[in-house]
Amino acid sequence: MEWLSSHGIDETVGDLIAEMIEFKKSPKLYAHAKDFLTKFPEHEDAPAVVAAWLEASDSGEAARFAALYLAQPEICDDLHPVIRAVFATRYRKQLYDLVNALLEKHPRRYVWQRCIFLKPDAFKPKMETLALRWLTLNLDNPQISIMGVSCARSKDIIKLAMQWLRGAGKNSLMLQFDIPMLLNSIKRQHKELSSEIADITRDWISRSENDRGAGYVVGALAVATHADQDVNFAKQWYLKYKKTESAWCVLSDLLDSTKCDSTDPFLLEEAITVLKSQHPNKRTPRLLGALLERCTDPEVVSLAKEACRNQEMPWILMILIERAGDAESIDIAWSTVHRWIQYPIAARLLLALLKSDPSNQQFQHSARQWLAKNPNDKHANQVSRYLLE
């Protein structure tokens, strides 16, 4: 911040101001943001500066700047950070009206796919309203992806997404990613639509089973339905297409499937073979995790340790500690946790370490430090239960 004050505000510092505001809420930084926007209103970094200022301060002045940019449809594609910030702060009718007007005028612009991303653990009714309108305006558009709306709580959005899959989106190149997300979301939130999405998925597979990304869909369907026909088809598909780039995903999903015998020697051996063929810093985390959940043979544990020493894989370390928590695994986890301490997963890794050795003073100290900085985190109560008096 001192450097900014001494350097002065020129056209090179917009991105820096936006990044600094994300890490530190400060009236001085907000003043720098205003100064930058006043001097360089048409700079390519201006929308990011406005968005960071608005989201951090939620101030009327920042909102006025946001309104100025939202009222410029000619720069629509650059406004995704501003639109996201509008939905991350308190309701202001003027800003919502401007966003809605922009959508009506330019419904097919890519900006909407950059800012409409519904999260199951962060329900935002107004964002879902925007998503519903966006999808309605794009039902005949084969160029969109429905990934961003797949986790909608609104059944109307999910129904529209399936309508798009049966129509304009039937041959979309993004379906290898769209369909698995929709299958998972429907399984969790809209089970009454499970039969319909399963039929849509089987239809896509029947037309695209040799697609290089088909494994993502084949495996996801087996996990979603647990139906014998889908599990058996997934096994047959793997045997036929095991050399394709998405085949590992079918293995991973079959290992996860409760309908499948996940201790099947064939599945275990195939997973081990695939992982051994990958360089230690390129091993697929999802497949490694699925295998480790089912098998803790020395060879599998060794593969996991080797991967964790060469990649940042805290989620694999959690499984490794819980399933085969030897001293070496714990040492790798301890050296990793400090690099992830600012991220949500740090709490779960700390919990795994504390469970492995509740009296360890280093673990206790790090847990207290984390708890002091994150008293409202959803894992805070669990961590505090392991702290010794």
SSE blueprint and pairings:
Elements: H1 2-7, H2 14-23, H3 27-39, H4 46-57, H5 60-70, H6 80-88, H7 93-105, H8 111-115, H9 125-137, H10 155-166, H11 175-189, H12 194-208, H13 214-225, H14 228-241, H15 247-256, H16 265-277, H17 285-294, H18 298-310, H19 314-324, H20 327-337, H21 345-356, H22 361-373, H23 380-385
Could you characterize the architecture of this molecule?
This protein is mostly helical and 389 residues long. α19 runs antiparallel to α20. Among the domains are: 115 residues; 65 residues, no CATH class. It is globular. The protein contains 23 helices and no strands. The two termini are 40 Å apart. Helix content is 67%, strand content 0%.
Average pLDDT reading:
92
Low-confidence stretches: none
> What is the molecular shape?
globular
User: Largest sheet, if any?
Assistant: none
Q: How many DSSP-defined strands?
A: 0
Measured as a percent range, the helix fraction is 55-70%
* Relative strand content: under 5%
Which structural class do the helices and strands define?
mainly alpha
User: Which sequence of SSEs, written as H and E, runs from N to C?
Assistant: HHHHHHHHHHHHHHHHHHHHHHH
Distance between the termini: 40 Å
Number of helices: 23
Alpha carbon gyration radius = 24 Å
